[in-house]
Design goal:
The complex is a heterodimer of chains A (267) and B (169). Chain A is mostly helical. Chain A is built from 8 helices and no strands. In chain A, helix 1 runs antiparallel to helix 5, helix 2 packs antiparallel against helix 3 and helix 3 packs parallel to helix 5. Chain A is globular and about 85 Å long. With 169 residues, chain B is of the alpha+beta class. Chain B is built from 2 helices and 8 strands, in the order ααββββββββ. In chain B, strands 1-2-3-4-5-6-7-8 form an 8-stranded antiparallel beta barrel. In chain B, a hairpin with a 4-residue loop joins strand 5 and strand 6. The longest helix of chain B has 23 residues. Classes of the chains: A mainly alpha (267), B alpha+beta (169). At the A-B interface, helix 3 and helix 5 of A face helix 1 and strand 4 of B.
Chain lengths: 267, 169
């Protein structure tokens, strides 16, 4: 879904990509709220908080939240950079790298939270920053590979788009099978999977604690594994065709040799 | 209207200058977890944003105890907030020892008290925290919508040494 070539992607892949990645985003965000009382995305809210804390004169809090927003942007930058710069030379590596990085960050947060976290404010600030980086990376990667069609942590924009699409549907202006109809379906899938991921994340975190982040990392690893398996199956299917093509080439070369008069067994 | 180059240059540099000013301002700031450490004396409490007038059995932040849970009681207390997460609250009826943590960007204060029977976990919004004042909002929640605002003043360290609290006037 993420590593696949764009030419091989179809609408069902886009729905699966949107749904699974939205589920991971919902899980991470809810766990961040429960563990740290801070959202791991919600950049809109964070920017509003910057304004509020600035007016209140709480400069430390302003610096913290500005840094958080910057790490989110840094994550999105890193995701797009890896896909476009590294991907131009090694397509699959460029697309897999940001997902692997996000898996690493989630595993790191889960491990640190489970083993070392003593709930100091400094630790909280750094861990939230890491999660914001992961969510920026997540959003940037998914948006890049889907050409902007899927943004899994941007629910403000999604709710806006969904509102507009429902308006068109209510007026009978939405054509069945059109691009708009597909977009609406995609937005509904993303919203429901985000909510589902949040519910699962909350239930898991209240029982299992920080190991819940490993669950999110596992889903991302599963997406990469499914892409790798799909690629493997394609190569297996292509092998007989490739072998046949090689035989034909060899046969054509032999026929070409006979036509210029070299002696054969028949002669 | 064509702006002079000096104005345009200043506008281009403004975001970077603002960010630099912010970094410099924040470097000199005390962190909330440092500011919170010390002795605090509760001086006021009030309810805010209540949906309806309070019934007679409301007294301060003391609420009726429900069978399934005990609600928070904080009234005319002294809070001794230690530097390593320990908190001692001197109450009318004795003393409680627990653990405090700041969460989020330093805007949420959690208190955890463990007794032989149960563990109490309290969550407050830190509305104001500076060298002299601490204001906390506690969401009363389920049975009565509204917020209880607890106001504290910084007290000298010796005020937190003696465990017996002052009564409410």
């Amino acid at each position: 879904m993420i590593v696949l070539d764009d030419s091989r992607r179809n609408p069902s892949f886009t729905l699966w990509l949107g749904g699974t990645t939205a589920g991971v985003a919902g899980l991470v965000n809810v766990c961040s709220v429960i563990a740290f009382f801070a959202f791991a995305s919600n950049v809109t809210g964070h920017v509003a908080i910057v304004a509020q804390e600035l007016v209140s004169g709480h400069f430390h809090q302003v610096a913290v939240v500005v840094t958080w927003v910057a790490t989110f942007m840094g994550g999105a930058f890193t995701g797009n950079f890896l896909i476009t710069a590294v991907g131009s030379r090694a397509h699959r590596l460029g697309r897999a790298a940001p997902v692997l990085l996000e898996i690493g960050v989630l595993v790191l947060v889960g491990w640190y939270g489970e083993v070392h976290y003593t709930e100091t404010l400094t630790e909280t600030e750094y861990l939230v920053g890491l999660l914001l980086f992961a969510m920026g990376l997540h959003n940037g990667t998914v948006a890049t590979v889907s050409d902007g069609a899927v943004k899994t942590t941007h629910l403000t924009g999604l709710a806006t788009s969904l509102g507009m699409e429902l308006s068109l549907l209510a007026q009978g202006k939405m054509v069945k099978g059109s691009k708009q109809a597909f977009q609406m379906k995609l937005h509904l899938v993303i919203l429901s999977w985000y909510l589902g991921g949040g519910i699962v994340g909350a239930a898991l975190f209240l029982r299992a604690g920080f190991v819940t982040f490993f669950a999110g990392a596992s889903v991302l690893a599963g997406i990469l594994a499914s892409d790798a398996f799909a690629h493997y199956l394609e190569r297996r299917r292509a092998e007989p065709t490739r072998a046949l093509a090689l035989l034909r080439t060899a046969s054509d070369r032999n026929e070409g040799t006979r036509s210029i008069g070299r002696p054969t067994r028949d002669d | 209207m064509k702006w002079p180059p000096s104005v345009l240059n200043a506008c281009r540099r403004a975001p970077a200058l603002a960010a630099l000013a912010l970094v410099v301002a924040s470097l000199g700031c005390e962190r909330p977890d440092q500011t919170l450490v010390g002795c605090w004396r509760q001086v006021d409490w009030r309810y805010e944003r209540m949906d309806e007038p309070l019934p007679r059995w409301f007294d301060g932040v003391r609420l009726r105890t429900y069978p399934d849970r005990d609600l928070v009681v904080h009234e005319a207390e002294r809070w001794d907030v230690g530097p390593r997460g320990a908190v001692r609250i001197a109450r009318r009826d004795g003393e409680a020892q627990g653990r405090w943590r700041l969460k989020g960007r330093g805007h949420v204060l959690t208190l955890r008290f463990a007794s032989s029977e149960s563990e109490t976990f309290e969550v407050y919004d830190v509305k104001e925290l500076d060298a002299r004042r601490l204001e906390l909002n506690y969401d009363i929640g389920v049975e009565a919508r509204g917020v209880a605002r607890l106001s504290f003043e910084r007290a000298p360290a010796r005020a937190c040494v003696a465990p017996s609290p002052e009564g409410r006037s």
